[in-house]
Amino acid sequence: MENGTSKFLRKLCTGYSMYFNFKYDHSGTIFQGSVKSKHVGNDDYFRYLIQYVHLNPYGIEEPEMMKATKQEHLDEAIAVSREYEYSSYKDYLGEDRPRKAILSKVEPR
């Protein structure tokens, strides 16, 4: 389907916004900006994206932190991500994380 991803994300975000607004008696938007996408055309870029997502917890307290800073302090960034409660990094590593997390693995039947 042409523009299928964009249409799906628009419907998902609209549905969640309606749910959120109803549940919390809120009005208006809850997301900023439009969805952006970029083709992952090679393994190097794919590895970069995985690292970018998993090292995001390191920049939570300093949102203006430059990408290069995360690279310069890679060991510290990894340690923070391993301890951050809502990170999927432990899932990526195949480690267990507390069940109170937003997402948890479903054991196959």
What order do the helices and strands come in, and which of them pair?
Blueprint: H1 4-23, H2 43-54, H3 67-72, H4 74-83, H5 89-93
**What structural category do the secondary elements indicate?**
mainly alpha
Roughly how many Å apart are the termini?
A: 32 Å
Q: Main beta sheet, described? A: none
Helical proportion?
40-55%
Any descriptors?
single chain, 5 helices, mainly alpha
Characterize the structure shown.
The model has no long low-confidence stretch (mean pLDDT 80). The protein is built from five helices and no strands. Helices cover 49% and strands 0% of the residues.
Q: What's the short version?
A:
With 109 residues, the chain is mainly alpha-helical. It starts with a helix and ends in a 16-residue tail after the last helix. Helix content is 49%, strand content 0%.
